[in-house]
Amino acid sequence: MIEPDLGAPLDIHRAKVLPEWIDWNGHMNVGFYVVAFDKATDTLCNQFGVGWEYTRDKIGMTFVLEAHVTYDREVKEGDPLRITTQILDHDAKRLHYIHAMYHATEGYLAATNELMLMNIDYESRRSAPWPIWARERIEKMATAHASLPRPPQAGRIIGIKRKS
Questions:
Q1: How would you label 72-90 residue by residue, b for 16+ Cβ within 10 Å and e otherwise?
Q2: What InterPro entries is this protein classified in (predicted)?
């Protein structure tokens, strides 16, 4: 198992906008933002020891229960991406976190992805408490992230604002 990165926020995931991710508008298609964020979730899960091997070895799984994406500024083919992750909350079975996608060289915020992740027992496919080793790592990272300001995109509700 790797040593968890206690940087706040977690700032180790890098990617590049692939040609197949581009839509007819000439920028990254909305669905591929989610793909890029999903890869960042893999990076996060590896920090807790619940990555691919966790499922491959039939120990457990993780399922996303809810997700919310904001699209703040477009990125285009070949653009380098830097995705940070901040833990917002956690309990015995769940992890609430937010990813922020930045253009890696220009520095602007391109998108955010807020998620609720749940630990799943491999055999029953039902929610289960995090394994001890994962819970300890989650708690260390959550403590490191506790002093970060809450991103304004976290907890947003979608809707049309009406003027009175």
A1: eeebeeebebbbbbbbbeb
A2: HotDog_dom_sf
Instruction: Give the Cα separation of 151 and 35 in Å (integer).
Output: 21
The CA–CA distances, whole Å, from 1 to 48, 50, 106 equal 9, 10, 33
Q: List, for residues 79-137, the tens digit of each pLDDT value.
A: 999 999 999 999 999 999 999 999 999 999 999 999 999 999 999 999 999 999 999 99
Q: Does domain 10-145 have CATH number 3.40.50.12280?
A: no
Amino acid letter at 32? F
Are the CB atoms for 101 and 110 separated by under 8 Å? yes
* Contact criterion met (CB below 8 Å) for 49 and 133: yes
Q: How far apart are CA 21 and CA 26, in angstroms?
A: 10
Phi then psi for residue 162, to 5 deg, are -105, 140
Residue type, 57: D
